[in-house]
Design a protein that fits this description.
The protein has seven helices and six strands, in the order βαβαβαβααβαβα. By secondary structure, it is of the alpha/beta class.
Length: 205
């Protein structure tokens, strides 16, 4: 999906970043979110990041910077899975600035280190100070049974980084396999940062 121009009344620009092996399938909640925001006249960029099966941290950082630098208005970034450590690495380098960031279902450091294809995304060294400098508002969304973060992202990321955290019970990796297609509360948060992220309703389309 390419960047969609904003309407004259738009005051936000959204950058939605996917994770490892994600080719932006139509059923995924990020794809749904991009469409819902665009339908409301928002400026939305949902890029296919380079070589998602064998990602390079350098290439993904370059693409992140290019898309973020092109944004106008209030900058809102939504990251899922491997895009979370991508954002952490960028924050440590001091090369990104957004107004709000949503970090959803990051894999644990042990999982990242355990796969050769993504091991380069491990050990960002991010601190709470790095994240505050990168964005004044950062929200973490974790689950209590994520197979890619068995210790719980709330404990591994939320506590040490001082992040405001929403825990989605039984949400696994918050991906298509877990049933996360349309996800209304992510749209609500994008439009109103005070919204708490809730599980996807069973009857959501």
């Amino acid at each position: 999906m390419t960047s969609i121009p904003a309407s004259p009344s738009t005051s936000r620009s959204f950058l939605i970043l996917h994770g490892w092996q994600n080719r932006r399938p139509e059923g995924h909640w990020q794809h749904w979110l991009a469409g819902e925001l665009a339908a409301r006249g928002q400026d939305v960029t949902y890029p296919q990041l380079p070589d998602p099966d064998h990602p390079s941290l350098t290439s993904w950082l370059d693409r992140l910077h290019a898309h973020l630098d092109a944004q106008e208005h209030e900058r809102v970034v939504v990251c899922h899975s491997l895009a979370v450590p991508l954002w952490l690495h960028a924050a440590v380098r001091g090369t990104v600035r957004a107004d709000r960031v949503l970090l959803v279902a990051p894999p644990s450091e042990a999982v990242i280190a355990g796969y050769e294809d993504i091991a380069g995304f491990c050990r960002s060294g991010a601190t709470a100070a790095h994240l505050r400098a990168a964005a004044p508002v950062t929200r973490l969304v974790a689950t209590d049974n994520d197979p890619y973060c068995l210790g719980g992202a709330a404990q591994e990321y939320g506590v040490p980084l001082g992040l405001d955290t929403d825990v989605v019970p039984g949400g696994a990796h918050l991906d298509l396999e877990a049933g996360y297609g349309s996800w209304p509360s992510t749209l609500s948060w994008c439009l109103d940062e005070t919204t708490r992220i809730a599980p996807r309703p069973p009857n959501a389309p």
